[in-house]
Amino acid sequence: MSDASIQPNSTVADPAGVREFLDLLKPRVMTLVVFTAVAGMVAAPGELHPVLAGIAVLCVAVGAGAAGAINMWYDRDIDAVMRRTARRPIPAGRIAPEEGLAFGLVLTLFAVMTMGLAVNWTAAGLLAGANAFYVFVYTMWLKRRTPQNIVIGGAAGAFPPMIGWAAVTGGVSLESVVLFALIFLWTPPHFWALSLYTDGDYGRAGVPMLPVVSGRRATKWQMLAYTLVLLPLAPAPALLGTAGPLYGAGATVLGLIFVVSAVRVLQDTDGRETAARRMFGYSILYLFLVFAMLILDGAALGAA
């Protein structure tokens, strides 16, 4: 594929408005990031003043959005040829690339410095590390070079509960590492479910996602493997005292459904990847419910 075939639209007809810059922040991704960070804060032992807690949440949201903006700036060439991403602000020509980059860099600096000065520097360091990992390790290094891009690069999205935990405690512990691992192991089956029915997009863009490189069958087996490893890990916060037995039971049930979803994807041979579409939707619900239970359980333990 020639470089000319993947050049984004570089013409910006009108000055970008608020809507365009909000789209640059990947608000749907940001919502899940903020939610898991709040779960880390609620589950952590100790207390944080409500004002400082609000600042910490704001910094996580702004930092996540900033990383998304820089990702869109760097990936503007491949985004332009993928149906799922062609309407993003930069490839669609609604924001100039240099504006998107500057926006992301300024917000990153603001988020990290505010977190450090107002909350603590451990949380700020984790936030900076998450953004650096997402931009440099995943976006610029792994994404276009290896089918394991989402496995290693997914670590960037696993930082938020650790950041929330550190905002309250000022440190990192086994409990927060378990929350990190939960999202880390969830990311591959979640993203590969999406890539099973969008592999044509990735093929055209030259991105070596696992279904493109290894085929759909191998991808489905790996998705099942990750859900099986995730199954005993998700209830672990109950064993560590971060959550109670109700959380442990709920996480186990949700994990079993996740495994069943992966089995159905493996058995699906109709070519339309209907089961993969359903698993992708369930994977989002799974993570939301697991961390919602963690928040509710943590709040109940804190009130006890």
UniProtKB/TrEMBL annotation:
It is found in: Cell membrane. Pathway: Porphyrin-containing compound metabolism; heme O biosynthesis; heme O from protoheme: step 1/1. The chain crosses the membrane at residues 29-46, 52-74, 95-115, 121-142, 149-168, 174-194, 223-240, 246-267, 279-301. Carbon 2 of the heme B porphyrin ring is defined according to the Fischer nomenclature. This is Protoheme IX farnesyltransferase. It is an enzyme of class 2 (transferase). Converts heme B (protoheme IX) to heme O by substitution of the vinyl group on carbon 2 of heme B porphyrin ring with a hydroxyethyl farnesyl side group. One of its GO terms (biological process) is heme O biosynthetic process. The keyword Glycoprotein does not apply. It comes from the Bacteria. It catalyses: heme b + (2E,6E)-farnesyl diphosphate + H2O = Fe(II)-heme o + diphosphate. Its EC number is 2.5.1.141. One of its GO terms (cellular component) is plasma membrane. It is a multi-pass membrane protein. Keywords: Cell membrane, Heme biosynthesis, Membrane, Transferase, Transmembrane, Transmembrane helix. Its main location: membrane. The keyword Hydrolase does not apply. One of its GO terms (molecular function) is protoheme IX farnesyltransferase activity. InterPro entries: Protohaem_IX_farnesylTrfase (IPR006369), UbiA_prenyltransferase (IPR000537), UbiA_prenylTrfase_CS (IPR030470), UbiA_sf (IPR044878). It holds the Pfam family UbiA. Belongs to the UbiA prenyltransferase family. Protoheme IX farnesyltransferase subfamily.
